[in-house]
Design a protein that fits this description.
Number of helices: 3
Shape: elongated
Order of helices and strands: EHHEEEEHEE
Distance between the termini: 29 Å
Strand content: 25-35%
Amino acid sequence: MQKEPMTKRGYDRLKAELDERLNVIRPRIIAAISEARAQGDLSENAEYHAAKEEQGHNENRINALQSALGSADVIDTSKMKNKNVVFGATVTVIDVESEEEATYQIVGRHEADLEHGLISVQSPIAQALIGKTEGDDVTVKAPKGDREFEIEKIEYL
């Protein structure tokens, strides 16, 4: 199995979700299925079918989480001291055209969440940032055309 980089914070978040799904959600679904079975005819029992569908979704997510955690190469970014952008860096950039500022942390693919500024190490912007230093200009190839950014700050939190 190939190891994939993951921040310690991302690992802990996925582990907490797995624990919740195994120890809280799974037992709740099992109880709902049992209760629905007790109502009799399962062929027309909407509660039973809904609970079975929820069980399938939960089990699929459990499997995905176990796979992600099993292949994780956990990296504690708080101990990193680097002047260049590498995995785990929190990078503040300024869009050269719009002058808008954005901050991204480069993380593993299983923990990426753009709404929270977490971008996959495999994303085009992360690939463009890796190896650069503060003050560097970066060109990111985007679907709507190239975008220019200037790296304002690099941190390891």
